[in-house]
């Protein structure tokens, strides 16, 4: 930075004007907080999110499952940082496990962001909006309410391909594989694994995602799956065959009756370490709800490799543009320079 200098007679002061390029949208960092983090800057945040999710679910109930799946796929690779929302070459959406994320659920979060930023300015991240929308989808579908930690910044980059591709597959994952993946995110209690698997109480899937289960035909339910998948036009398969559109404990009742759709679902009832928890949740919706709320709060604070560092995106689907502006620095200021933008 050039400093002011004086020279020549009559005490003439020569001012040096220096043009400085400033890049906007620097990385931000902050600790997480509980509910109410945005109460001063955006008091209407939660009402905007709730009303938007409610209207969306009235049009399409499947959005609840879509939001839950997006939230899980966002949080597991590198914490809940909205990295899964980034679009384009090399982003998480282009990687194997995420190519079937529900586009309408992704768009819903972006639509909510636009409403929130119109009301409050760019004060709330896509990561926080995604977490709130997912919670509201659970509640509106009949599930438990829970506190959403707020104050997450949006990531500056997607997770690497090897991390995303390492997400456990519902087609092949054993309890030990799932437990290792959950433990790496701070979810070390097997009750976390069983409770969060209960998100399958809503949603549907296609035959390619449970083909291994259907092809085994080792029980009456797998034979039913195989019959549907061999039909000319297979129907989408409900993940919870008891109450498919309600967030309740029907999923666990189905598992007790060997009616789990994914191999990973059936692993929970067949493994001696998780089977007692499955049976408990099948018998008590309250027990499931209490643990699900606790486990979702833990997942929402899954560690981020570099800490809570990032930005508040102006579109959930892309990084903020780094716009250069010219700042004039008056090197004759008393302190040596002044800057204004």
UniProtKB/TrEMBL annotation:
<feature type="domain" description="Plant heme peroxidase family profile">
    <location>
        <begin position="36"/>
        <end position="320"/>
    </location>
</feature>
<feature type="binding site">
    <location>
        <position position="92"/>
    </location>
    <ligand>
        <name>Ca(2+) 1</name>
    </ligand>
</feature>
<feature type="disulfide bond">
    <location>
        <begin position="42"/>
        <end position="120"/>
    </location>
</feature>
<dbReference type="GO" id="GO:0046872">
    <property type="term" value="F:metal ion binding"/>
</dbReference>
<keyword id="KW-0349">Heme</keyword>
<feature type="binding site">
    <location>
        <position position="81"/>
    </location>
    <ligand>
        <name>Ca(2+) 1</name>
    </ligand>
</feature>
<dbReference type="GO" id="GO:0140825">
    <property type="term" value="F:lactoperoxidase activity"/>
</dbReference>
<dbReference type="GO" id="GO:0042744">
    <property type="term" value="P:hydrogen peroxide catabolic process"/>
</dbReference>
<keyword id="KW-0479">Metal-binding</keyword>
<feature type="binding site">
    <location>
        <position position="74"/>
    </location>
    <ligand>
        <name>Ca(2+) 1</name>
    </ligand>
</feature>
<feature type="signal peptide">
    <location>
        <begin position="1"/>
        <end position="29"/>
    </location>
</feature>
<feature type="binding site" description="axial binding residue">
    <location>
        <position position="200"/>
    </location>
    <ligand>
        <name>heme b</name>
    </ligand>
</feature>
<comment type="function">
    <text>Removal of H(2)O(2), oxidation of toxic reductants, biosynthesis and degradation of lignin, suberization, auxin catabolism, response to environmental stresses such as wounding, pathogen attack and oxidative stress.</text>
</comment>
<feature type="binding site">
    <location>
        <position position="79"/>
    </location>
    <ligand>
        <name>Ca(2+) 1</name>
    </ligand>
</feature>
<comment type="similarity">
    <text>Belongs to the peroxidase family. Ascorbate peroxidase subfamily.</text>
</comment>
<keyword id="KW-0873">Pyrrolidone carboxylic acid</keyword>
<dbReference type="InterPro" id="IPR002016">
    <property type="entry name" value="Haem_peroxidase"/>
</dbReference>
<comment type="function">
    <text>Involved in defense response to powdery meldew fungus.</text>
</comment>
<dbReference type="GO" id="GO:0006979">
    <property type="term" value="P:response to oxidative stress"/>
</dbReference>
<dbReference type="GO" id="GO:0020037">
    <property type="term" value="F:heme binding"/>
</dbReference>
<keyword id="KW-0408">Iron</keyword>
<feature type="disulfide bond">
    <location>
        <begin position="126"/>
        <end position="316"/>
    </location>
</feature>
<feature type="binding site">
    <location>
        <position position="83"/>
    </location>
    <ligand>
        <name>Ca(2+) 1</name>
    </ligand>
</feature>
<feature type="binding site">
    <location>
        <position position="243"/>
    </location>
    <ligand>
        <name>Ca(2+) 2</name>
    </ligand>
</feature>
<feature type="binding site">
    <location>
        <position position="248"/>
    </location>
    <ligand>
        <name>Ca(2+) 2</name>
    </ligand>
</feature>
<feature type="binding site">
    <location>
        <position position="168"/>
    </location>
    <ligand>
        <name>substrate</name>
    </ligand>
</feature>
<keyword id="KW-0325">Glycoprotein</keyword>
<keyword id="KW-0376">Hydrogen peroxide</keyword>
<dbReference type="InterPro" id="IPR019794">
    <property type="entry name" value="Peroxidases_AS"/>
</dbReference>
<feature type="active site" description="Proton acceptor">
    <location>
        <position position="73"/>
    </location>
</feature>
<dbReference type="GO" id="GO:0005576">
    <property type="term" value="C:extracellular region"/>
</dbReference>
<keyword id="KW-1015">Disulfide bond</keyword>
<keyword id="KW-0106">Calcium</keyword>
<dbReference type="InterPro" id="IPR000823">
    <property type="entry name" value="Peroxidase_pln"/>
</dbReference>
<protein>
    <recommendedName>
        <fullName>Peroxidase</fullName>
        <ecNumber>1.11.1.7</ecNumber>
    </recommendedName>
</protein>
<dbReference type="Pfam" id="PF00141">
    <property type="entry name" value="peroxidase"/>
</dbReference>
<dbReference type="InterPro" id="IPR010255">
    <property type="entry name" value="Haem_peroxidase_sf"/>
</dbReference>
<keyword id="KW-0560">Oxidoreductase</keyword>
<keyword id="KW-0964">Secreted</keyword>
<dbReference type="InterPro" id="IPR033905">
    <property type="entry name" value="Secretory_peroxidase"/>
</dbReference>
<keyword id="KW-0732">Signal</keyword>
<feature type="binding site">
    <location>
        <position position="201"/>
    </location>
    <ligand>
        <name>Ca(2+) 2</name>
    </ligand>
</feature>
């Amino acid at each position: 930075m050039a400093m002011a200098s004086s020279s020549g007679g009559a005490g003439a002061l020569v001012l040096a004007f220096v043009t400085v390029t400033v890049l906007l949208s620097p990385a931000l960092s902050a600790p997480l907080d509980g509910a109410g983090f945005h109460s001063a800057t955006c008091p209407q945040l939660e009402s905007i999110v709730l009303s938007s999710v409610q209207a969306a679910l009235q049009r399409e109930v499947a959005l609840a499952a879509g939001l839950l799946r997006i939230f899980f796929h966002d949080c597991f690779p590198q914490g809940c940082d909205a990295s899964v929302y980034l679009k384009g070459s090399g982003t998480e959406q282009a990687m194997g496990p995420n190519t079937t994320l529900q586009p309408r659920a992704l768009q819903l979060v972006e639509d909510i962001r636009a409403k929130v930023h119109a009301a409050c300015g760019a004060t709330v991240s896509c990561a926080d909006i995604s977490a709130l929308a997912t919670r509201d989808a659970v509640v509106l579908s009949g599930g438990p309410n829970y506190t959403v930690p707020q104050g997450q910044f949006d990531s500056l980059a997607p997770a690497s391909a090897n991390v995303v591709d390492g997400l456990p597959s519902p087609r092949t994952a054993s309890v030990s594989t799932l437990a290792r993946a959950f433990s790496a995110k701070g979810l070390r209690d097997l009750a976390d694994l069983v409770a969060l698997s209960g998100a399958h109480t809503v949603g549907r899937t296609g035959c390619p995602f449970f083909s291994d289960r259907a092809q085994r035909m080792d029980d009456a339910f797998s034979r039913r799956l195989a019959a549907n998948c061999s039909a000319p036009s297979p129907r989408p398969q409900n993940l919870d065959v008891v109450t498919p559109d309600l967030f309740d404990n029907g999923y666990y009742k189905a598992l007790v009756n060997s009616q789990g759709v994914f191999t990973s679902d059936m692993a929970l009832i067949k493994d001696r370490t998780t089977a007692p928890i499955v049976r408990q949740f099948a018998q008590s919706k309250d027990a499931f709800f209490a643990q699900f709320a606790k486990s979702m709060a833990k997942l929402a604070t899954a560690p981020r490799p570099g800490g809570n560092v990032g930005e508040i995106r102006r579109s959930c689907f892309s990084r903020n543009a780094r716009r250069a502006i010219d700042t004039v620095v008056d090197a004759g200021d008393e302190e040596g320079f002044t800057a204004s933008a």
